[in-house]
Automatic annotation (TrEMBL):
<protein>
    <submittedName>
        <fullName>S-layer glycoprotein N-glycosyltransferase AglJ</fullName>
        <ecNumber>2.4.1.-</ecNumber>
    </submittedName>
</protein>
<feature type="transmembrane region" description="Helical">
    <location>
        <begin position="262"/>
        <end position="282"/>
    </location>
</feature>
<dbReference type="Pfam" id="PF00535">
    <property type="entry name" value="Glycos_transf_2"/>
</dbReference>
<dbReference type="InterPro" id="IPR029044">
    <property type="entry name" value="Nucleotide-diphossugar_trans"/>
</dbReference>
<feature type="domain" description="Glycosyltransferase 2-like">
    <location>
        <begin position="7"/>
        <end position="148"/>
    </location>
</feature>
<dbReference type="InterPro" id="IPR050256">
    <property type="entry name" value="Glycosyltransferase_2"/>
</dbReference>
<keyword id="KW-0808">Transferase</keyword>
<keyword id="KW-0328">Glycosyltransferase</keyword>
<feature type="transmembrane region" description="Helical">
    <location>
        <begin position="228"/>
        <end position="250"/>
    </location>
</feature>
<dbReference type="InterPro" id="IPR026456">
    <property type="entry name" value="GCTrfase_AglJ"/>
</dbReference>
<keyword id="KW-1133">Transmembrane helix</keyword>
<keyword id="KW-0472">Membrane</keyword>
<dbReference type="InterPro" id="IPR001173">
    <property type="entry name" value="Glyco_trans_2-like"/>
</dbReference>
<keyword id="KW-0812">Transmembrane</keyword>
<dbReference type="GO" id="GO:0016757">
    <property type="term" value="F:glycosyltransferase activity"/>
</dbReference>
Length: 305
């Protein structure tokens, strides 16, 4: 492999404290093709990156996601590594990420931070949030990935080109992970080191607000992949609420008190819940048929060639 075939893509927003060293480290590892996509930093991040020999492009919109989408469109190199500019990942571990891709075993490799993180790299809230989100992802997509939110990843160019991405903020890693699964890409995870952020630079991620957005992204995108999960959750909650009010209505009725409006509500909750399960079953059925049709078209096209 020629190391110029690998584009190191770094999204940055006010990372002057770390970006220079990061670029130096990657250059030391032999990577000279470095693209920094900058969110109009006001602390000189762009200038530092340029002085260290990176190509710097200003993002046209807002958010890490928008930056990544814009940058993916600019890349022509056959391999891509994305890495945060905050100095939390090690340049010398890039080869672990590249290996499965270069050997043709994987289309996309995720650096798993959750096995080998330094003390202080995650706050308690962050760690819990990450584990919860990965678990939720596992249930929604039926794929056991350990660290879907990692910011250190390797791709083949074809893998990147195949992804249909729309999320502009910190939901971008989630969307990348979901798209790789939907596009049936071969995804591998390798353990990597995760360091604490430098004291000089603050994170731009808000654990509560962004955590909620990430969770809701997993849920909404599941509609197309696992409709039973999508509708089932609503159905489950509705039926549970119905059983709750129902228990109360029945116990009161046994003691001689009627609650007519609550009885109606109970019925509605349970019927609505059951309907959601029927929706889910039907959507699952349609999706299965659709998948079979797509598969058939792919096979027919192959035969034509
Ligand atoms: N271009 C660009 N980069 C961003 C933006 N927001 C965050 N980043 C960069 O994305 C990377 C990850 O962000 P960070 O705040 O470290 O999030 P965390 O690692 O999830 O805590 C860092 O290199 C940030 O500088 C943005 O709006 N635009
Ligand atoms: Mg970070």
């Amino acid at each position: 492999m020629n190391s110029a075939d690998v584009c190191i893509l770094v999204p940055t927003l006010n990372e002057a404290a770390t970006i220079g060293q990061l670029i130096k480290d990657f250059r030391k590892e032999g990577f000279s093709n470095i693209l920094v996509i900058d969110g109009n930093s006001r602390d000189g991040t762009g200038e530092i990156a340029e002085a260290e020999g990176a190509r710097v492009v200003m993002q046209t919109g807002k958010g890490k996601g928008q930056a990544m989408i814009q940058a993916f469109g600019l890349i022509e190199s056959p391999y891509v590594i994305m890495v945060d500019g905050d100095g939390t990942y090690l340049a010398r571990e890039a080869r672990f990420l590249l290996e499965p891709v270069l050997e043709g075993r994987a289309d996309h490799v995720i650096g798993n931070r959750l096995e080998n993180y330094s003390p202080g790299a995650f706050t308690k809230l962050n760690l819990m949030g990450n584990r919860l989100i990965n678990m939720f992802f596992d249930i929604a997509y039926g794929v056991k990935l350990k660290d879907i939110l990692s910011g250190y990843r390797a791709f083949t160019l074809e893998s990147v080109r195949e992804l249909e991405l729309n999320k502009t903020g910190f939901e971008i890693e989630t969307e990348i992970s979901v798209e790789c699964i939907l596009k049936k890409q071969r995804v591998e995870e390798v353990p990597i080191t995760y360091l604490p952020r430098s004291e000089k630079g603050a994170t731009k991620l808000n654990p509560v607000k962004d955590g909620f957005r990430i969770g809701s992204t997993i849920y909404k995108l599941a509609k197309m992949h696992n409709p039973m999960f999508y509708f089932g959750i609503i159905g489950y909650i509705s039926i549970l609420a119905g059983l709750f009010t129902g228990t109360f209505v029945v116990s009161e009725w046994i003691e001689g008190t009627d609650h007519i409006p609550l009885t109606i509500l109970t019925t509605l909750l349970i019927i609505f819940g059951l309907q959601m399960f029927i929706f889910g079953t039907l959507s699952d059925f349609i999706l299965t048929l659709h998948r079979q049709t797509v598969q058939l078209i792919i096979e027919m096209n192959k035969q034509k060639k």
